[in-house]
Every structure is written in C-alpha cells, then in structure tokens.
Design a protein that fits this description.
It contains 2 helices and 20 strands. With about 300 residues, it is mainly β. The protein has 2 domains: about 160 residues, Sandwich (Immunoglobulin-like), CATH 2.60.40; about 100 residues, Immunoglobulin-like. The strands form 5 sheets. A 5-stranded antiparallel sheet has the order 1-2-3-9-6. Strands 13, 14, 16, 17 and 18 form a 5-stranded antiparallel sheet that branches.
C-alpha cells in the first residue's frame, strides 16, 4: 500500500503505511487567503502571461497548472487541474485500502520555496477490491506557493504520478510547467474556479465545536474507532474517514445508529475498524485525523484517542 507524507506531528518523515512519500506538505487549516487574492488580482498591473500551463494528457485523464494570483505575505495561489474521462475516478491523499495516492514532484521548480496542497472533501467508492477514497469528477487541487524571492518570476514544474480507475486502474503520468510573473494580470475566471474548490477543503475544528457537519465524540472501541457526528438531514452522502500513523489502516465507516435530531439534522454513530496495525500497536492513545463529510462539505479534526470529547 502507498500513502503520502503529511505535515503533522505524528506523521513519519519518510513514509505512511509503507506508501511512497509525496514531495509537499498537506495543511490542516482553512486559513489560506484565497478570497483576498481576488482583490489583489484586480489591483495588479497588466502583463502578458498565460494563467494556465499546457495540458499533459494521459489515456483517460489530463493535468495542468493554474495561476490564481497573489496572496498575502508574498504567497501565490495556484492549482492543479485534473480532468477525468467519464466513469473514471482518481484518489485522495489517503486513498483507502484499494486505491493509489497521487505523487507530486516540484523539485525542478525555480524560485519556489514551498508548495502546499489543499484537498477538497472526497467521497468513498466500494468495489470488489475493497474501499477507496477520491474523486469521480474533474477537480482542482488548490495550492499555496511560497517563492524564495517574491519580487522575481518563478516557474512551477510538476511531475505527477497518479492513478485513474474505472473497472481497471491505469497510471496517469504528467509533466507540465507554468511561469508566473509577480505583477501579471490574472484570469478572473480561473481565480474564481480555484476559490470554489478551496471552499470545499475541510476546515479544521475541535471535537464538539458547533460545525455542520461536525463530530461530537471520538472513542476507541475494540479494534475500532467509534465516532458520533452530526450532518444536515438533506445530505445525500454522509461519511467519515480516519487517518493514522505509519502501519495503521482504517477501513470504511459503518453507521450503527442514525437518529433524527429535529427537522434539519441527523445524528450518526459510525464504527470505523482498524484493518491493519503495526505489531504491538494499541489503539488507545493513537494520534489520528478524522474527516467528516456531508456531500461536498467537510470538517477535519486532529486528536488522540484517549483525549476524546464527550457528546454534546
């Protein structure tokens, strides 16, 4: 199985579940100033430049880079756009027990200090091979790019290895590059599209916060995690995902209790089994990341299993 390197205290620096490491950090908050970019874009002086790189095409998918304009503190907003052929899907940062995560390599970029990737709320897919987590429609992964020198041009160069799957899985490989001038005029349509996907990135919260959707309680439960949450009654899809350090793998969440809580809310208790664990690993005290999703909205929590909040 493969996975991704996360910028969290409990993540190993090399691998996660024995999967190849991605060459970027993954953020755990929703504080990137994507809305501020629109105002900065309108004030930027004009300069001739494409706001999108050439497409890099594979058999059933294509990938390119987008420039979303300047942000505060010298950062630049950008995006990875992925298009999929009908009936194909691609994977989230933690792809489940039968998926493959994308691997993004930025090492050939110039004047780039850091690239942070934001992941919109995913959905689960069940098939004969098990359960996978990802996306079944075209998407944009928003980026926050930090240049080494904000006053100078930079070039984002991406080498991407990812999988697209229908009844079979096919490697999708791509290479593309986008040159960005600090004072370039931005494409307002691209700025809006990146911002729309950024709003779908799960915000970070604390257990019991009055978010919707939200998690009220998390507790260990005999080789599993029990999660009590709240979702809108109108949600067509409600799910929860559990990520843990190297050697651990949690399976698909199974709802054991579903209760109406007024006309607009459902309360759900999920049981999420630990399907793989390191030798001698105990679930009590395990640092985990919990993401609860209702349709295209999500909220993310980081906690230790012995520090669960009571239901409210």
């Amino acid at each position: 199985m493969r996975s991704i390197e996360f910028a969290l205290p409990h993540r190993p620096s090399k691998t996660h579940h024995g999967k190849p490491t991605m060459m970027f950090r993954v953020p755990r908050s929703a504080t990137a100033p994507f809305v501020a970019a629109i105002a900065l874009m309108l004030a930027a002086p004009a300069a001739a430049q494409s706001a999108a790189s050439p497409w890099s095409r594979s058999a059933h998918s294509s990938i390119r880079l987008l420039d979303g304009g300047p942000a505060r503190d010298g950062e630049r907003i950008a995006g990875i756009e992925i298009t999929l052929a009908p009936e194909f899907k691609t994977y989230w940062r933690d792809p489940g027990d039968s998926g493959l995560p994308p691997v993004f390599d930025w090492s050939a970029s110039t004047n780039v200090r850091d690239v942070v990737v934001f992941w919109p709320a995913p959905h689960r897919f069940d098939d004969s091979a098990g359960s996978s987590i990802g996306y079944s429609e075209d998407l944009i992964l928003p980026l926050a790019v930090t240049p080494q020198n904000p006053s100078q041009p930079m070039t984002l160069r991406l080498k991407a290895d990812y999988a697209v799957c229908s009844t079979i899985c096919i490697p999708g490989r791509g290479e593309t590059a986008l040159s960005i001038q600090p004072a370039a005029r931005q494409d307002f349509g691209i700025v809006q599209r990146i911002a729309a996907f950024r709003r779908r990135v799960p915000a970070r919260a604390e257990i019991g916060d009055p978010t919707m959707p939200g998690v009220l309680r998390v507790a260990p439960a005999q080789k599993a995690v029990e999660i009590e949450g709240r979702v809108p009654a109108s949600a067509r899809i409600a799910d929860v995902f559990v990520e843990a350090p190297e050697g651990w793998l949690f399976g698909a969440a199974v709802p054991s209790v579903v209760l109406a809580e007024g006309p607009d809310t459902r309360r759900i208790v999920w049981r999420v089994p630990a399907v793989d664990r390191p030798d001698g690993g105990t679930i009590e005290g395990l640092p985990i990341t919990v993401t609860v999703v209702a349709d295209d909205e999500g909220v993310e929590y980081r906690l230790k299993l012995d520090a669960a909040a009571p239901a409210r």
